[in-house]
What does this fold into?
Amino acid sequence: MEQFVFIIALLLIGIILQKADAPIDFSKSLNFFVIYVSLPATVLIQVPKINLDFSALSVILIPWLLLPIVIALVIAMTKNYPPHVRAALLLVMPLGNTSFVGIPIVHTLLGENAIPYVLMYDQFGTFLILSLYGAAVIARYETGSFHKRLIVKKLLFFPPFIFLVFALVFGEMPLISQPYLQLLSSTLVPLALVSVGYSMRFGGELDYLLLSKALVLKLILMPFFAFGLLYAMGVEPLAMKTAVLESGMPSMITAGALAIAAGFAPALSAALVGYGIVISLVTLPIIAYLMEKLL
It folds into this structure.
């Protein structure tokens, strides 16, 4: 319980700092450190613990199986809406905040042993979907072009992805480096959550009916679908719980930012991120509790 209070406190610190005289690009600076230092250190510590068995591969597979389901439901939901609204939901709905929010919440609800599965879901699922599918959505609805070379370059030179491959190939880091990697890794949760809180935005002219439908799909139906798929596959409990919680994470801040920058229903995109984070603090513990009772 204390850990969950700590998560809320860090989000509130970020929200309060919105009113402070923060440096320009304060949130980007935090994100830069997390992406280039904290997350790679976490990857180097946690990924060697992964046993690439059926359960781990199932965790990687789930976000890709959910993608066409979410696309079909979004298209059905937005059949009477303008293209920019559909584009916003197509970009923001499939992509969850599976690292910045996912790591601290899964750590709190399931413990440290679940973190390797979080990293697999995030890097081979969310990150690849953002890089490939996200770029395709923006190209389709904004630019009319698809820069394959730029996408591949971003993918191959993304620091956590590089370290993920390194850790999978070379395994556990030398013992002498472990305390220092642990120290750097410990910065991930506070910095990421303060950054998330600082980036949260609410308000604007909204279609609250569509927003409500989108939040139900993102926070309730997606983990429900994930649970059904994983249960049918016979995945072991910890991997299943982790993947289900990851599938129920609120929308990714980066996806929301990309949607806003592209002019895809900015108020709706921001609301899905902001309200999603707040509501997920209620839905995720409930989902974890229900899975504990069922499994």
